[in-house]
Design a protein that fits this description.
Residues 1-31, 539-566 are annotated as: Disordered. This protein is of the alpha+beta class. The protein has helices at 3-15, 38-49, 52-65, 67-71, 79-88, 92-99, 108-137, 162-175, 193-219, 476-495, 527-542; strands spanning 152-158, 179-183, 186-191, 221-228, 232-234, 242-245, 257-268, 278-289, 296-301, 306-308, 311-327, 333-338, 342-343, 350-356, 369-377, 398-406, 426-428, 438-441, 446-449, 454-472, 499-507, 513-521.
Amino acid sequence: MSKTETDTGRDQEDLGAAGSQLSTAPQEEISAPPSLGVTGWVRWFWRQLTSMRVALLLLLLLSLAAIPGSLIPQTGADAGKVEDFRAAHRTLAPVYDKLGLFHVYSSVWFSAIYILLFVSLIGCIVPRTWQFAGQLRGRPPGAPKRLTRLPAYTTWRTEADPEQVREAALALLRKRRFRAHLADDAVAAEKGYLRELGNLVFHIALIVLLVAFASGQLYKSDGTKLMVEGDGFSNALPMYDDFKSGSLFQSDDLVPFSFDLKDFKGTYELTGPNKGTPRTFEARIRYSAGAYGKDRTTTVKVNEPLKIDDAKVYLVSHGYAPVVTVRDGKGRVVYHDAVPLLPLDGNVTSNGVVKVMDGYRDAKGNKEQLGFQAFFVPTFDARSGTMLSQFPALVNPLLAVNAYHGDLGVNSGVPQSVYQLDKKHMKAFQDGKGQLLKKLLKPGDTLTLPNGAGSITFEKDIKEWAGFEVVQEPGGGWALGGALAAILGLAASLFIQRRRVWVRAVRGADGVTVVEMAGLGRSESAKVPEELGDLAGILYDQAPGAPDPDDDASESPVVPAEGAEK
């Protein structure tokens, strides 16, 4: 055995309990699997699962497992994109289906990693919490026999009594917020327990985050609603345009409230490099909470949602809804409404359809349905040469329409989009040249259909619509609290150092008190020697050093007592 190994072993033996672990972290030991017995295998598996290296490995796997959920379309977020992906990748899509990559966060393998990490963290935290509680109830260990073995050490001689030095040291350490007590001929003190508390808080906060994430996924709800100025909404499933929720969500969990969209206001930069950038983007609504709540008026802005209990109402989109009137050949109004059109670009170039499903008869009196494709620009500029809006506000609105008649297919039982026109059973109206009938309409203009089929009028009234997203996330508050606690706990575990200090004062052979001070930290750090030097300087002022003995002075002769034998 080398001299270094011998000295290290002696150091550990001399320090004893004083040199024990300065943390509650379990010591990692690589143990071989048991050879016999079900109980032994279970115990061995549990120790591996609750070890720190396995917890870190599971955390890494969870991070890697979340990557496909960000790169591959998810059915819970956008089912339409998933269908587009299936159509574009007919060979790869079945493989993704078997692996659960279209619903990563609810897949079996992601849930297995999630649950194992949850169990691993609990298995680590519970014993460490009990151990930390025991350390708080106990006292710092007594001083080792040889303080010179510690990394930070100082000593001096003083004429003060040992008891006075120890009392002064005890008062000084307690004033510096050390947990200190007298142990035989020394004062034992310890500080930095918040480091271990921060470590435990960090791990507990991770569990809180996992629970909050799980509850949020299981009980969440997320729905969207497009509302034209003047429309109303009640928080019930049939009222949503699109709705998705967690697996444990029930319709009774929806927060009861309702609101009306009074008007929408949007203003934009008129000039400069930011021309067209929104300056004001807000919706004024009147709402009531609960079944019998009082009506209140408020304004919903981007990133400033309306909060009603656990529900939040966000303003997420905006567009225009031109008011159109459709008449039959006899001039009777068969359709009159604001038609919301979907924006295609930042200047709100929009398109959509007008569907006349009931009440229309052709010139011969036969029941028929009408469909109009609409293309709208709020600011038209003929100099541009294109049917694209040059500004998002209503400066020079223009509506382009073309017309079809026949069967819209709305009675077939197959769902269809309100923004698309199914032309399978529709015929286009033609102009005098046999071309598709179409016309650019300014507010107030009318397109007359051929052969007395009727007309469509672009009214001067142009309304605006706003898209709202209603979100309920029951675990949002817990997730925020867990994240803040994790940050604080991690900061405490990184910047607070747990350390121990001992002060021994004993009377030497020559009757002069010898003071020894030593410090020990969890890891090598300059903070422990600096702090020990500061404490030693203060204690030295209270118990100043005594002059060193004169090594050159001759020893006094010993005179035998009278009557003693020579």
